[in-house]
Each structure stands twice: as structure tokens, then as C-alpha cells.
Specification:
It holds the Pfam family NB-ARC. The structure is a single chain. The chain contains 8 helices and 3 strands. The chain is mostly helical. The chain folds into 2 domains: 1-112, P-loop containing nucleotide triphosphate hydrolases (Rossmann fold); 125-157, no CATH class. A 3-stranded parallel beta sheet has the order 1-2-3, with helices on both faces. The radius of gyration is 18 Å and the shape is elongated.
Length: 158
């Protein structure tokens, strides 16, 4: 859903960046610095951005993006440190900037004083099965002999 939103509105901004798997990448060594480099590089259109620390990255984001109308999507955020390093405060960006954050932790958003929160509804069982089958089998239905296992998987994952 976040990627579909991004694709449908990104052309309304000076520049846009979709950072996938923030949780996973930030857990790696120098992960937050890497994410800051990716963000700055994508938004500024510069290949070799040098960020030496999270604090330097914060300063660069504030200074270089403050006057721009940007769209940022942070996918799968799970820690406040990630938000502080990538989208710290409202005064970092112009009022025309939009930041979309996907997370499983609603408290994370309220703690960061996010104003507008959209809570996703669970898919129905038929919708879940269809989504699972397209990703697992590249078809609408489970392969023969995989029906029960597929249903167990969607119920487990909700």
C-alpha cells in the first residue's frame, strides 16, 4: 500500500525517496548512516554522499532538505532512533514535505508525535490466500497438495 501511494504521488514533489526495510538495514553495522546516505543521495541526486556519523547525517538532512518539497517513505520502522536519524523534527523539512512511515508499532508513532495515523485492516481469508498464492506460487490458487499448508500459513501470519 505504501509503495502504491508513493508511486501515485511522487511526481507531485521536487524529489522523492522510498527507503525499504528500515528495520533490517538499521540493524546492520553502520545501518543508520547507510540509510541516511541512501536518503540524501536519492533526494539530492548525488551519487557519492559522505556521511561519517548519524549526527553528521542529521545535520546534512536538516541543512540540505529544509527548503525542498520532498516525499519520504520509511518502510518497516521499529525504533525511535530510526525516526530521529531519518525524519527527526518537523522543522527539518518544508511544510510541503510529506513523510510516510510504515510500522507495526503504533506507540512508536504516538511517541514521535505523528499527527495522522492510518491503521491497516487485516485482509479477509480469501484475500490473504490470493496474496499468498501470488507470492508463493505465482498463481491464484495453491498448488495441488498445498491447500492445507497455505491456509495454515495465512492463519498463522494473520
Amino acid at each position: 500500500l505504501a509503495k502504491a501511494l508513493y508511486n501515485s504521488i511522487c511526481d507531485q514533489f521536487e524529489c522523492a525517496c522510498f527507503l525499504f526495510n528500515v528495520r533490517k538495514i538499521s540493524d546492520q553495522e553502520e545501518g543508520l548512516v547507510h540509510l541516511q546516505k541512501m536518503l540524501l543521495s536519492e533526494l539530492l541526486g548525488e551519487e557519492k554522499i559522505k556521511v561519517r556519523s548519524v549526527e553528521k547525517g542529521i545535520t546534512m538532512i536538516k541543512e540540505r532538505l529544509r527548503e525542498r518539497k520532498v516525499l519520504i517513505v520509511l518502510d518497516d520502522v521499529d525504533k525511535t532512533e530510526q525516526l530521529k536519524a531519518l525524519a527527526g523534527e518537523c522543522d527539518w523539512f518544508s511544510q510541503e514535505t510529506r513523510i510516510v512511515i510504515t510500522t507495526r508499532d503504533k506507540y512508536l508513532l504516538t511517541a514521535h508525535e505523528i499527527e495522522k495515523i492510518y491503521e491497516m485492516k487485516l485482509l479477509s481469508d480469501p484475500e490473504s490466500l490470493l496474496l499468498f498464492c501470488w507470492n508463493a506460487f505465482k498463481m491464484r490458487r495453491p498448488k495441488a497438495n498445498y491447500e492445507d499448508l497455505s491456509n495454515q500459513a495465512i492463519h498463522y501470519a494473520q
